[in-house]
């Protein structure tokens, strides 16, 4: 075990984690020139296109140090976006050390600090790495000061590198084997292995990616999952190189994969502990926390015949993405679907795109919402995230909404714009700290429901892309939340209802009405689109009727002939409006979720 190092790479989004992982793999001979491609550990097309890591990925590398000793390096590349911090937390549970990458031009950012705290929570040794030193804007000495002041790490241990140009990669590898500790654990103790990832293989079933904490695992062993209490026989064990490589056994300190003929996805819980049936461990490995969704939205298939496919797709996706939570839901307008919980808006966007790309399912989503707590007048309380189940306002005594503590890091010249944006989104107890020359940290407490739609996009706009945002959940606080119904031709459309703070109800309702009026095609009669709180209308748009010129054939004669035809047409349209149905196209449900900027 002295020659094994289990470590992950953590950083703020876009600080060069995946590029550093590429260089480490190349330096250790993990891939030849012909098989190499950028972001080699990012297996999904969506990760490559957006330049972000969504799923952490593990690879085992062989490294010969300068002193001639051979080491086995188990590298885990993690996401950097705040929405995927649950993925980072699971990866940290299986490591003994971490490389903390900091951009030489951007410096320490919000997620850098958050990830460091996560690593300290798991007692990991942290080696700082200053990346992108080849950039004209790079300032290594300033970043060393920030590492000392903001992170409390030794600035002289930080390794300056350029992952893009391959500068300093050997120093990083030497730092890994000299500064990061080897794993601990007793190979002779009862088996304890933590599942930190899993994926579905069409031919082999579920492939589990594990870190062995105690004991050893060989082919033919009978194992049990401690949380679900289900047993399986091990068919194959091995190491994750760029392909799966079989091994005779995995033992304490190793990171590898296990295939045990698991066909039912529901049997697996990522974060579960594997133990042996013949010599079971006394208790599971502590520290696992299930993901808590903060954003909720309903998903419906575009065609009702795709419902069964959506069920199967969500099951497979849930295995690959343990933080996705879903349950059955239905809507009068859109039929059967699922109410899903996400870690944030980027997570929602990624899940929607993966369902469309990987499984070919077109979806309609309802407006995202958060979980509200309600005290009723009869003394009982409710937790509601779906406007469909919102109680009668007469029964509501008090409503509480979730608050977050937001940390925004921005250059000093954009501080005023960032604070103004926070106030616009109902922020309270604004404060700021000067971290280094020209860099400010803005702290604010904000309602989570406010940052759901376009806060992050607007922050990037007002700070010219230099602002970074991170948050952690606080308690629930009293709020004036109302349910707004959208009526099309005096009929409520349940899938378009949403929950919002009373101050913003009218502006959001007006946006919904305008978007629907622009998207719903004209009918033979005038269609009113209204936003209402209870029986009170707060917004309205009209779709003009398609009108046939019935007087065209009257080329002369008395005016009463024309008037008679117009009155007849008017009576027909009135009757048509009473019995006519308005067909709402699927595009309309998507259009209302677009921000004003996209609408233009």
Summarize it.
The protein is an alpha+beta fold and 600 residues long. It has 14 helices and 31 strands. The strands form 6 sheets. Strands 11-10-16-7-8-15-12-13 form an 8-stranded antiparallel β-sheet. Strands 2-3-1-4-5-6 form a 6-stranded mixed β-sheet, sandwiched between helices. Strands 21, 22, 23, 24, 25 and 26 form a 6-stranded antiparallel β-sheet that branches.
- What is the CATH T-level topology of the largest domain? Rossmann fold
Helix/strand-derived category reads alpha+beta
Could you give the order of strands across the largest sheet? Answer: 11-10-16-7-8-15-12-13
Q: Alpha-carbon distance between the termini?
A: 60 Å
Roughly how much helix do the residues carry, as a percent range?
25-40%
Biggest β-sheet strands, sense, barrel: 8 strands, antiparallel
How large is the count of helical segments?
Answer: 14
Average predicted local confidence, pLDDT: 80
- CATH class identity of the largest domain: Alpha Beta
Which residue ranges are poorly predicted, with pLDDT under 50 across at least 5 consecutive positions? 596-600
Tell how many strands the DSSP assignment holds. 31
How big a fraction of the residues is strand?
Answer: 25-35%
The CATH superfamily of the largest domain is P-loop containing nucleotide triphosphate hydrolases
CATH architecture of the largest domain: 3-Layer(aba) Sandwich
Radius of gyration: 29 Å
Count the domains: 5
Query: Which descriptor suits the 3D outline?
Result: globular
């Amino acid at each position: 075990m002295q020659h094994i190092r289990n470590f992950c790479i953590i950083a703020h989004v876009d600080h060069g984690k995946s590029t550093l992982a590429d260089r480490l793999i190349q330096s250790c001979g993990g891939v030849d020139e012909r098989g190499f491609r950028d972001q080699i550990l990012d297996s999904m097309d969506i990760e490559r296109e957006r330049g972000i890591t969504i799923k952490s990925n593990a690879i085992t590398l062989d490294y010969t140090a300068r002193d001639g000793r051979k080491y086995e390096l188990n590298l885990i590349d993690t996401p950097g976006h705040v929405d995927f911090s649950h993925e980072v937390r699971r990866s940290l549970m299986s490591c003994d050390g971490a490389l903390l990458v900091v951009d030489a031009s951007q410096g320490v950012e919000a997620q850098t600090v958050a990830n460091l705290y996560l690593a300290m929570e798991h007692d990991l040794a942290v080696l700082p790495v200053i990346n992108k030193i080849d950039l004209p804007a790079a300032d290594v000495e300033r970043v060393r000061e920030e590492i000392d002041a903001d992170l409390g790490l030794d600035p002289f241990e930080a390794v300056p590198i350029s992952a893009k140009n391959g500068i300093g990669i050997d120093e990083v590898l030497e730092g890994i084997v000299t500064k990061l500790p080897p794993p601990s654990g007793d190979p002779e103790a009862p088996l304890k292995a933590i599942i930190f990832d899993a994926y579905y293989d069409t031919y082999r079933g579920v492939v589990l990616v594990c870190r062995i904490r105690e004991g050893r695992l060989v082919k033919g062993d009978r194992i049990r999952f401690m949380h679900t209490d289900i047993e399986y026989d091990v068919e194959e064990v091995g190491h994750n190189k760029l392909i799966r490589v079989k091994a005779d056994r995995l033992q304490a300190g190793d990171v590898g994969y296990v295939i045990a003929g698991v066909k039912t996805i529901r049997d697996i819980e990522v974060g579960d502990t594997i133990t042996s049936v013949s010599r079971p461990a006394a208790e599971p490995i502590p520290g696992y926390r299930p993901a808590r969704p903060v954003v909720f939205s309903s998903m419906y298939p575009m065609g009702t015949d795709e419902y069964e496919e959506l069920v199967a797709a969500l099951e497979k996706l849930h295995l690959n993405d343990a933080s996705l939570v879903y349950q059955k839901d239905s809507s009068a307008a859109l039929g059967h679907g699922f109410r899903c919980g996400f870690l944030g808006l980027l997570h929602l966007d990624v899940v929607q795109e993966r369902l469309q790309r990987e499984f070919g399912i077109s979806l309609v989503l309802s407006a995202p919402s958060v979980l509200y707590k309600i005290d009723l007048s009869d003394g009982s309380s409710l937790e509601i995230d779906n406007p469909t189940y919102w109680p009668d306002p007469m029964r509501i005594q008090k409503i509480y909404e979730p608050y977050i503590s937001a940390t925004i890091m921005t250059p000093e010249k954009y501080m005023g714009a960032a604070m103004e944006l926070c106030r616009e989104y109902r922020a309270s107890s604004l404060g700021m700290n000067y971290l280094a020359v020209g860099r400010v940290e803005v702290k604010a407490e904000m309602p989570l429901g406010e940052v759901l739609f376009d806060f992050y996009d607007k922050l990037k706009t007002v700070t010219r892309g230099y602002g970074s945002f991170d948050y952690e959940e606080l308690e629930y606080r009293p709020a004036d939340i109302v349910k707004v119904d959208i009526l099309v031709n005096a009929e409520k459309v349940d899938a378009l209802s949403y929950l919002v703070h009373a101050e913003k109800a009218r502006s959001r309702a007006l946006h919904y009405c305008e978007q629907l009026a622009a998207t719903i095609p004209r009918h033979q009669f005038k269609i009113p689109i209204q936003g209402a709180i209870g029986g009170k209308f707060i917004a309205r748009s009209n779709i003009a009727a398609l009108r046939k010129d019935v007087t065209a054939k009257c080329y002369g004669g008395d005016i009463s002939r024309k008037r008679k035809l117009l009155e007849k047409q008017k009576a027909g349209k009135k009757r048509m409006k009473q019995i006519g149905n308005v067909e709402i196209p699927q595009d309309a449900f998507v259009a209302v979720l677009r921000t004003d900027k996209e609408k233009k």
